[in-house]
Amino acid sequence: MGLFGLGKKPGLGIDIASDAVKAIELVPSGDTYDITQVAEVALPKNLITDDEIADIEKLAKMITQVRKRMGSTRVAVAAVSGNQAISKQVPMSLDLDDEAIAEKIESEAEALIPFPINEVRYDFESLGEHQTLPGQQRVLVTATRTISVDSRVQALEAAGYKVAIMDVDNQAIARACSHLLPHMHPEILDSKLPYLILDISTSAIQIIVIHQGEVAFHRFQSGGLSQLLSALDEDGSIDHGEIMAKLRSGDIDEFPSLIIQDFLSNLWNQVSRGVQMYQSNAADKGFSSILLINTGAMLPMITEALSEQVDYPVHALNPFEHFILPSKFSHLQNHGPRFVEAIGLALRSFATWHM
């Protein structure tokens, strides 16, 4: 059963973000997977704003371009934003099976889901026996408005894909990290402390705390790198691709230092607020590390600035340092941090759990 009840398992992950559609296809190989196909197509500005799709038909045409660059797989895993989904852990009797849990959720929907039940898609996952309530299990209930799922499904289906599973982006990111860390940073998993994921895209910053393999906290805030790009291109005369290329290379001397420092200071303030919100209700007050993903992970100045603020490691997570890219995709080697969610979605094809 796929999240939000959309069917069977595919082998392809498609990440529909505000700036691009990214796709990864994986096949099992020993204790890991091989990448067989990778594709990315940039999206026009304002086609997706605050996770809402302005033109489904236009998005479908962009996804069609992705499909033409991929292999023959037509069954996909995609995701809605964690900003559009609500997750809640509730205790239920250990005796309840999936069918009974579903019935209980529907009967108690008003208390569990803050939307009318006929306006949402929901799914659940048993997280195992409750640590403090004997005879109870922890059940994670996740719900989102039907329109948030259906608009993405419509675009994907119009592009020629069958959508088997709709996931949630922070769950996909957590899944990717759970697979990558034993190979790339096993010391993070050896720690009893949670780790912090910063998903920094052009349009938003998502803060995700992973504790004991589960998403313990997430916070979404719009803004992201677009604020920096706009500040560096005050009169609109500079190509943002050129700006990003210089930022990725660490060549920032020609940019006003005040603008750079302002951005880095605001970024740290956003991270600090998110951390404070999490720690206000958490037993553990520290982190084992920070993992940077998405476009922000490709900017050395962000890794350096965060490293100066904390006393634990800060890593830019590039999954293509673990997965060997086919030679025809070698030009994407340094862009791995942008594909973390797509990898997590592709990995969902091989997971046995609900989420």
Q: Which percent bin holds the helix content? A: 25-40%
Q: What is the CATH topology classification name of the largest domain?
A: Nucleotidyltransferase, domain 5
Count of beta strands: 15
Q: Which architecture of the largest domain would the CATH scheme give at its second level?
A: 2-Layer Sandwich
Tally of distinct domains: 2
N-to-C span: 9 Å
Principal-axis shape: globular
Proportion of beta-strand residues: 25-35%
Give the averaged pLDDT, no decimals: 89
- Biggest sheet strand order reads 3-2-1-6-10
Superfamily (CATH H level) name of the largest domain: ATPase, nucleotide binding domain
Helix/strand structural class? alpha/beta
Strand and helix order: EEEEEHEEHHEEHEHHEEEHHHEHEH
CATH class of the largest domain: Alpha Beta
Low-confidence stretches: none
Q: Main sheet, how many strands, which sense, barrel?
A: 5 strands, mixed
Organism: Pseudidiomarina donghaiensis
Protein name: Pilus assembly protein PilM
InterPro entries: ATPase_NBD, FtsA/MreB, PilM
Pfam family, one: PilM_2
Task: Give an overview of the whole structure.
The protein is of the alpha/beta class and 355 residues long. The chain has two domains: 261 residues, ATPase, nucleotide binding domain (Nucleotidyltransferase, domain 5, 2-Layer Sandwich); 60 residues, Dna Ligase, domain 1 (2-Layer Sandwich). The chain contains eleven helices and 15 strands. It has a five-stranded mixed β-sheet with strand order 3-2-1-6-10, with helices on both faces. It has a five-stranded mixed β-sheet with strand order 13-12-11-14-15, sandwiched between helices. Strands 7-9-8 form a three-stranded antiparallel β-sheet. The termini are close together.
